[in-house]
Amino acid sequence: MKIEDKLVESVINGLKALYGQEVPVKMVQLQKTKKEFEGHLTLVVFPFLKMSRKGPEQTALEIGEYLKANEPAVAAFNVIKGFLNLTIASATWIELLNGIQADEQYGLVKATEKSPLVMIEYSSPNTNKPLHLGHVRNNLLGNALANIVAANGNKVVKTNIVNDRGIHICKSMLAWKKYGNGETPENSGKKGDHLVGDYYVSFDKHYKAEIAGLMAKGMTKEEAEAASPLMQEAREMLVKWEAGDPEVRALWTMMNNWVYAGFDETYKKMGVSFDKIYYESDTYLEGKEKVMEGLEKGFFFKKEDGSVWADLTAEGLDHKLLLRGDGTSVYMTQDIGTAKLRFADYSIDKMIYVVGNEQNYHFQVLSILLDKLGFEWGKGLVHFSYGMVELPEGKMKSREGTVVDADDLMEEMIATAKETSEELGKLDGLTKEEADDIARIVGLGALKYFILKVDARKNMTFNPKESIDFNGNTGPFIQYTYARIQSVLRKAKESGIVIPKEIPAGIQLSEKEEGLIQMVADFAATVKQAGEDYSPSIIANYTYDLVKEYNQFYHDFSILREENEALKIFRIALSANVAKVVRLGMGLLGIEVPSRM
């Protein structure tokens, strides 16, 4: 039983004994005692003044006396105005630690048959270019969110929608056809997604040159863009694709397969995976069908040019285009089609879309449309909206090839981690394989933690150098502390110390040790909070605070050299449980922790 639950029960009994009143659980408010006051937990007594008919201090005093006499968990108390600060007995903290130690998955709730099914969509790449830094933030947030939602007792399906059709895909295809000379990933040694991305950049370069040539002949920019033969060819290719032209489709399949092989490598390295992948080339026709159905039912209306629209003025929004006059679909149509396929595949209770904040309006509209079309989870869909990620140098652009490539970024992070670790002597005495693995764990951990510790809603600047610091609020600092605890546990084992299943009570703990147990115990509430707020940064910052607190304890107290045997074993057990919670917390963020460093 949690200490808080035990105290709430005792407070309710106390109020009945003192004032003859039954009170509901929600009236008893306990919070962590502020650092400047003595105590662990504070009871707010203002709600009880009506029944006590006394001032706040007198009421707090009476409740404190009752708890001290009747609740063994309370060792002492003090009163500050209407706040009753309670000091919890050492034996109660040890009992709490024993409970945490007995649970290998402390703080994580397992899903059952009856648990709700939550589907989380993230990644959503285009098949005309490799994944970049923006995708890295999206993938890491989506993956962490899926882990956190699952740790709160939900069944989770991780899904990806690949944007594999449209004019931008035709641009890469056309450029390869014109300028590729049969180049393939095999004969060029390039990853498939990088190869296709190069042709997307190549199209833009030739297109710009063409526009400049036409403008030199006296055309305005608009006229030149309208007259561009290259863009005309790309549009014709899209029409052929939509009509199922065998040659265009064969080229499309070949180049997309190159890209998927490249994506798979990137996802694997990033530690990200999906349960189901959907493709827009499958979903857009389903979306058209659903829109036509909505038109028949009178949810939507047709304009003279044949385009189909939704009138959302009643919801305080405007008119939204769903099908163009020529019958081609827009993103909204595709999202409706994807929803239809997903609903056929899974009985979804909640749908979460991990998409940047520039799409806020899109998801507001999508929610209304899905609800109108009869999707039960439409109204309650969650748009997990996150801010942009930039580099210290500023914005990135795909067309111009100035994007930070995800693969290059991960490689650079691993190389920097190796260099930094070698300088600090953290890889001494390891084999090349061990050193390389630690560099990978630390480099990727630094990248993931730096991105996930920031509140997702905020725009952020990713600074690779700052992220690999072994001090401060970074992944490597947390990983290093974990490795340090593993070293303590190995030495304890070598000297024959075995942590018992139950630490005996009767040890007098210091304030620092009690505070550390309290922080470890807070992990369960932190996971719950992160799930309710859809916020991986809550887990990241909790883990950093716990590690910071443990490092102070490690610095101030002897562990293996402690002469009192019972206290030594307690401190080793406390260290082991701190490490366990750090491993679980970092695991939720998709970050590995090394056992030596």
UniProtKB/TrEMBL annotation:
Monomer. Signal peptide: none annotated. Residues 478-597 form the DALR anticodon binding domain. Belongs to the class-I aminoacyl-tRNA synthetase family. It comes from the Bacteria. Keywords: Aminoacyl-tRNA synthetase, ATP-binding, Cytoplasm, Ligase, Nucleotide-binding, Protein biosynthesis. SMART domains: Arg_tRNA_synt_N, DALR_1. One of its GO terms (molecular function) is ATP binding. This is Arginine--tRNA ligase. It is an enzyme of class 6 (ligase). Residues 5-88 form the Arginyl tRNA synthetase N-terminal domain.
